[in-house]
Amino acid sequence: MKHLITLKDWSEEDILGVLDLADIIKKSPEQFYDTMNQRVLVMIFEKPSLRTRISFETGMYQMGGHAIYYDMASSPLGTGKETIHDTVKTLSRYSDLIMARLFAHTNIEEMAQYSDIPVINGLTDFNHPCQILSDLMTIRERKGELKGLTLAYLGDAKNNVTHSLLYGCSKMGININVGCPKGDNFSPLRVVMDDCREICDKSGAVVKLANDPFEAVRGADIIYTDSWMSYHINSKELEDRVQALKPYQVDTEKVQLGAPDLIFMNCLPAMRGYEQTADVIDGPHSVVFQQAENRLHCQKAIIVKLLKEFMED
Ligand code: CP
Ligand code: NVA
Fold first, then answer.
1. What's the total number of domains in the chain?
2. Which tens digits make up the pLDDT trace of 161-209?
3. Catalytic annotation on 31?
4. By residue range, what is the domain housing residue 141?
5. Are residues 121 and 137 in the same domain?
6. Is residue 263, in this structure, part of any structural domain at all?
7. Is residue 277 part of a domain?
8. How far apart are the C-alpha atoms of 283 and 216, rounded to whole Å?
9. 306 and 262 belong to one structural domain
10. In the annotation, is 267 catalytic?
11. Which atom of ligand 1 sits closest to the CA of residue 130?
């Protein structure tokens, strides 16, 4: 059964399938008004969310289905009274799809292992595949193609969004320069870098790690950054992280080193004055709200694809 747990498991063809479908859905949403008739998506949340929660719920509603918000904290699972196994086996008897936003990636893997219906990763500490599918959609809308572009990621790169960007871009032939402080605290996990170098051997993309933020952004088509204080980071770490990450803040000087038609991306939520300056995120290069909008079209495409393949199985 096909799930969406990490883009590592999805082929270039799978990814293109979602992007093409999302384009059609965006253009003609009315064609899909009945596609999820009588279908139910259960959304398990262990962390906060604006975009993921609302885009999945709206997406199901607009396609004639229903989405249930299920708060992990007040569930038998979250209070230690029930196992992942029994939770997903039970949900499989009521609903058609499960989406979960969790801390530990191993927990979503366990959900997928035992679930009798498709499971979607709505973000774990390790990965955020739904975000990157819709980002690829946004990049293609803006640039007309994916292969051969260069994306520079600046900031905290030991990060779910960075890891999924690395998988998604290397699969689709987008070169990535990661600019982050030296050392394990802020660098992508080695296993992801190793996986991506192997993927790049096939796709022709190049992945580079740079500690000099100016070198990372030179000539880039896209600059991407993400929160310095991801949901799972303790607020006590703020001061130390700001100090370490400040040289990687996306500001006008760095944007000017990129291609003239550079786009600036951030999955949001964003903090002005931290991972980027206000003039960049609110300026002419920024596409952050197009990214946010595309979450809706892309979630619909993910749901439609997974359910269709499940029914055909
Ligand atoms: N980008 C994103 O996933 O946003 P939320 O945390 O608001 O869902
Ligand atoms: N890296 C961020 C992404 C938020 C969508 C986090 O985990 O909080």
1. 2
2. 999 999 999 999 999 999 999 999 999 999 999 999 999 999 999 999 9
3. no
4. 131-291
5. no
6. yes
7. yes
8. 21
9. no
10. yes
11. 3
Question: Do residue 91 and residue 154 come from a single domain?
Answer: no
Tell me what pLDDT residue 17 has.
Answer: 98
Nearest ligand 2 atom to alpha carbon 131: 5
Look at residue 35 and tell me if it is in a domain. Answer: yes
Kindly report the CATH number assigned to the domain that includes residue 144: 3.40.50.1370
Query: Which residue of the set 130, 180, 200, 267 is catalytic?
Result: 267
Query: What's the residue count for the chain?
Result: 313
- Percent of the chain topping pLDDT 90: 99
On whether residue 2 sits in a domain, the answer given is no
pLDDT tier at 269, thresholds 50, 70, 90: very high
Beta bridge partners of 179: 154, 210
Q: Tens digits of per-residue pLDDT, 78-103?
A: 999 999 999 999 999 999 999 999 99
128 is catalytic: yes
Task: Give tens-digit pLDDT for 18-74.
Answer: 999 999 999 999 999 999 999 999 999 999 999 999 999 999 999 999 999 999 999
pLDDT over 90 (residue 313): no
Atom 7 (ligand 2): residue with closest C-alpha? Answer: 230
